[in-house]
UniProtKB/TrEMBL annotation:
InterPro entries: F420-G6PD/mer, F420_G6P_DH-rel, Luciferase-like_dom, Luciferase-like_sf. Gene3D superfamilies: Luciferase-like domain. This is TIGR03557 family F420-dependent LLM class oxidoreductase. Residues 8-289 form the Luciferase-like domain. It holds the Pfam family Bac_luciferase. It is an enzyme of class 1 (oxidoreductase). GO terms for molecular function: oxidoreductase activity. Its EC number is 1.-.-.-. NCBIfam families: F420_G6P_family.
Length: 321
């Protein structure tokens, strides 16, 4: 069991993301996971720096902690050749501490380059081609690829780590879980769904299983819930909505009826560490072994202090119970 910390790049400016990553290492987290967005989900979040620059800076500022994207979409805003080069460089700069999290993306971030937003079936087929391209480039040498949606022409990533960068593929359903088993080295989910992990394993997946655990730490339950509602009410809209809306204003409208009680039903809120440990338990019981604590409370550094002293070891111990 490993315990990670979610660095939501939409919630803090780039310098603060780096400082939080350094603090997470000092607090004893095993890894940090950075979202890779062009826009924030809501205007209230107010940020969305370039994730790969922050990853490079964190590689230089830290010594032990693992780094991961959670997750990068390699089919529209980025070409997979660029993702392969960025991942290889980050792995080298971090001395092998990097994991590439990959997913089919959201319109929120991908529409900005004017390439349209395909149906979910097309996106999954594009993702297969993107992963095939990335794997080829990780093999070394000059590579070409002529797919239905994506092409690669005589390309080589010159600076590669000795061991290929591990790839964790995001899944919200059985088709994506089977894709993760076939083309990835691990699974990435956002809900404690045992069936997704079972599908991944049955399809031959043998790598680590990542899952995000939503919580809001704060001095009071009310303050934590209010901050979670202000910045993270969008999470209650569901992935079918989250993948399709183009801009923060649309997410504001879509989450307009979300109440504080709704947020309390999704996030463990407040200073009670027992509640946050119990929030993580269903993910462990479902079989996930890389838990990512996604704190959206009002005091990120305060959370990291408390997590380092009292929470990380307790969550890690769930995997031994």
């Amino acid at each position: 069991m490993q315990v990670g910390y979610k660095l939501a790049t939409e919630g803090h400016d780039p310098k603060e993301i780096v400082e939080l990553g350094v603090h997470a290492e000092q607090a004893g987290f095993d890894f940090v996971e950075l979202s890779d967005h062009y826009h924030p989900w809501l205007e209230e979040q107010g940020h969305s720096g370039f994730t790969w620059t922050m990853l490079g800076t964190l590689a230089a500022r830290t010594e032990r902690i693992g780094l991961a994207t959670g997750v990068t979409c390699p089919i529209i805003r980025y070409h997979p050749a660029v993702v392969a080069q960025a991942a290889a460089t980050t792995a080298l700069l971090s001395d092998g501490r990097f994991t590439l999290g990959i997913g089919a993306g959201e319109r929120l971030n991908e529409h900005v380059v004017g390439g349209g937003w395909p149906s979910v079936g097309v996106r999954h087929r594009m993702l297969v081609e993107a992963l095939e391209i990335i794997h080829r480039l990780f093999e070394g040498g000059y590579q070409s690829y002529d797919g239905q949606y994506l092409t690669l022409e005589d390309a080589r990533v010159f600076d590669l780590p000795e061991t290929p960068v591990p790839i964790a593929v995001a899944a919200g359903g059985p088709q994506a879980a089977r894709l993760a088993a076939d083309k990835g080295d691990g699974l990435f989910v956002t809900e404690p769904e045992a069936s997704l992990l079972e599908t991944f394993r049955e399809a031959g997946g043998t790598g680590p299983a990542y899952a995000e655990v939503p919580l809001a730490y704060g001095a009071s339950e009310e303050a934590a819930a209010e901050e979670a509602h202000r910045t993270s009410r969008w999470t209650l809209s569901g992935w079918k909505v989250m993948a399709e809306l183009p801009n923060p204003v649309n997410f504001d409208a879509a989450s307009g009826t979300v109440t504080l009680d709704d947020v309390r039903g999704q996030f463990s809120c407040g200073p009670d560490l027992d509640a946050h440990v119990e929030q993580a338990r269903p993910y462990v019981e479902a079989g996930y072994d890389r838990l990512v604590l996604m704190d959206v409370g009002p005091d990120a550094h305060g959370f990291l202090d408390v997590a380092g002293e009292q929470l990380v070891d307790r969550v890690r111990a769930l995997g031994r119970s």
